[in-house]
Structures are given as structure tokens and as C-alpha cells.
Amino acid sequence: MSPLVSVLVIAHRSDRWIGPCVDSLQAASQGGWNLILVDNGENNCLARFAAAPNVRIMKTPQPMGFAEANNYALVRGGLDGQYVCFLNQDTLSAPGWLDACTELLDAQPQVGAVMPLITNYEGTDWDPAFRTCARAAPELFFRLDGGPGADLGDLPEFVPAPELTAAAMVVRTEALVTAGPFDPIYGSYYEDYDLCRRIAQAGYEVGMCTRGRVGHFGGSVTADAAAYRRRARLICRNRVIYAARWKWQNRRRGLLKHMLICFPRDLARSALGRSN
Fold first, then answer.
1. Closest by alpha carbon to 7, among 83, 105, 110?
2. For 17-27, how does the pLDDT look when each residue is reduced to its tens digit (9 = 90+)?
3. How far is Cα 247 from Cα 243, in angstroms, rounded to an integer?
4. Is the dihedral of CA 7, 11, 14, 19 positive or negative?
């Protein structure tokens, strides 16, 4: 029988993170799910999960970007379930979050993709990427100042937003097949935003599930200065690709504005350690 959810986790330099990620995932859903662990290089502890009945380990032929590694898994069994969950290796699952997302998708067939509310790894503040996505949803965003402990129970179960982070994102498989997988041009960063835009373009709604929560560290593979510089370069590059594709009405004018205003600002943010 096919699983309800295929959970895809790309593991790269994952030894510190993958154990808590997989262990906490066990409580994320009481329904049927299978985990595909993608060995994307420099991992030493994935073998401990090989005997689990709902875990499959596959290895990429060489280290790939996040988009390519997920696509590699999608065409090798990742599309077998009714839903696909993209989950980062440096996440901690709160009990029931995956069920909350799939129940929302079951009840609202017009919704193509959702993400839970995402905190930092310790659960003491909101994840920066999640905050960025939530800006498009004022009814939620202006409540985030109360911190993760704020009572958000009066909010609707589904809050629309045009962009979601794939740190934890659940996508209807038929919507993913219609929209297509991650665009490998991005490699890593902004490929999730681009996918959300294409899912919406295919006629589905995209947004946040307020009944689920996941903790996220962020930047778990950025272990040294060289990796950080590469990450910053990719973010700057991909921000331009994404804006040119989805935001700039006039690409020449948009690029000029970016080079004169946005690019210097992004360099300053990168220098301050705020490149995302």
C-alpha cells in the first residue's frame, strides 16, 4: 500500500542533526508515512536507520544542491504518496504537525501546499525564514511579536501566503506533478518560493497551517567560512533569478534597481551574518 505521505530529507553533513530529526518525526503523524533519507555526502550515521520499516536510504551519485537532491528522490519513489513532505535535516517535529497539515489538505482540496508554523531550533523565537513568509499574511504576522508562546488558537486553520519555506512543507502530489518539481537552476535557496509560485499558477492555493509546528536551526551545512561565503553568493544570485521571474515587471529596470540599491544592502546583510 502506498504511504499517505512521502517525507524527503536531504542529508549532508548531517551527523549532528539527523538523529533528533528522525526521532522527533515519529510523533509527527499517526497516519501512514514513509521517510526517504537522501545521502547527499559527508554523512556517517545514516546506517542506524536502515532497519526501520518505514525508512528508505538512497545515495546521490555526487553531492547536489537542495533542489536537485529532492528531485532525485522524487523520481525514485518520492511521488508514491498522496502528499510529499520536504523536510530539512535540522528540524525538530512537534507532535502531530504532519497530521495537521495533511488533514487540512484533505479537507480543502483547493490547497496545493502548506507549511506549519516554524520556530527556531530551541523553540524560543520564530524562524527568520518563516517570519519572512508570514509578512504576506498580516492577520498572522502582527501576532508573531508575542513569540512562540502566544495563543494563536483563534486564527483560521489555513492562512494564505504566496511563498513558503521548504524547511518543512507539505505538497499535494497531484499539484507537484502539475506544477513540476524544484527548478534546478536555483541549486539551493529560493527554489521553494519558485515552486510555490508555480503551484499557485497551476490553480492551487498556498499557505500556512496554524495547527502544526516545527523547530528549525537553519544553515546546518554552513560549517565554515568558505561554506558561508558560498551560501551568501547563492542567495544573492538566486534572489535575482527569482525576482526577474516573478516580481520585476520590467527586467532591465528591476536589475538596475537591484544593482544600485538591493545588492549593496544584501552585501551588508551578509557581512552582518544576515544573508537569508
1. 83
2. 999 999 999 99
3. 5
4. positive
